[in-house]
Amino acid sequence: MEKQAADLVDLYYEQANIFSGIVGILGVKALHAVSPYKKHKHPDVAQQRFPDLSLNGKLNPPPTEALESKGSTRPWAIQSHYDHPGWYVVWRYMVDPTESIKPSRPVVIWRVDVVFLDKKDWKYEGSKAGAGRGGRTHTFGISNPAAKLKDAAAYVNRNVALKGGKPIMTETVDFASAPPNTLGGKAPR
């Protein structure tokens, strides 16, 4: 994913939110290739419906078999246009123009969270967009994200730490994975 994202990093400097969408799409492609979670076979359905992936590509899966892929630079947030229950994989990335964290990688995935979210976990975040004013569209975020994501890391790049709420490079070089994920007490099927 990092290599593919690196080829598109110029988009980050133009519009970061679009780039986060691309990171999420690259996650979908990766998971489709190596997991039992598949995109829907019909492209129009795959592009416009929740979830991004489902177990064996099932249309209208139950929440326990639904998987949504998100890209984010934020360490604790998850945003969505809907408040659907299901599994969410969040690819936490940072743009490193100096390529000092990983050589030849201006985009670094520094943590991957996997969490099951119920409808009650979401809160509506309104928009001030209006006719003639523009603005961002409405979204949903999760309530108390640090607590909800506390044990959700499936992967952590040990070369990155949070300081002041932002990912920064640490002094050590260690690419070990995160401790086992409890997945919030639920196991994916």
Topology diagram in text:
Elements: H1 2-7, H2 10-14, H3 16-34, E1 37-38, H4 43-48, E2 53-55, E3 66-72, E4 79-80, E5 86-95, E6 107-117, E7 122-125, E8 139-142, H5 145-148, E9 153-156, E10 160-163, E11 166-169
Parallel strand pairs: 3-5
Antiparallel strand pairs: 1-2, 2-3, 4-8, 5-6, 6-9, 7-8, 10-11
Distance between the termini: 24 Å
The helix-and-strand class reads: alpha+beta
Let me know the largest β-sheet. Answer: 6 strands, mixed
Q: How big a fraction of the residues is strand?
A: 25-35%
Q: What series of H and E elements makes up the topology?
A: HHHEHEEEEEEEHEEE
What Rg is obtained from the alpha carbons, in whole angstroms?
17 Å
**What's the helix count?**
5
Structural account:
This protein is an alpha+beta fold and 189 residues long. It has one domain. The chain is built from 5 helices and 11 strands. The longest helix is centred in the N-terminal third of the chain and has 19 residues, at 16-34. It is globular and about 45 Å long. The mean pLDDT is 87.
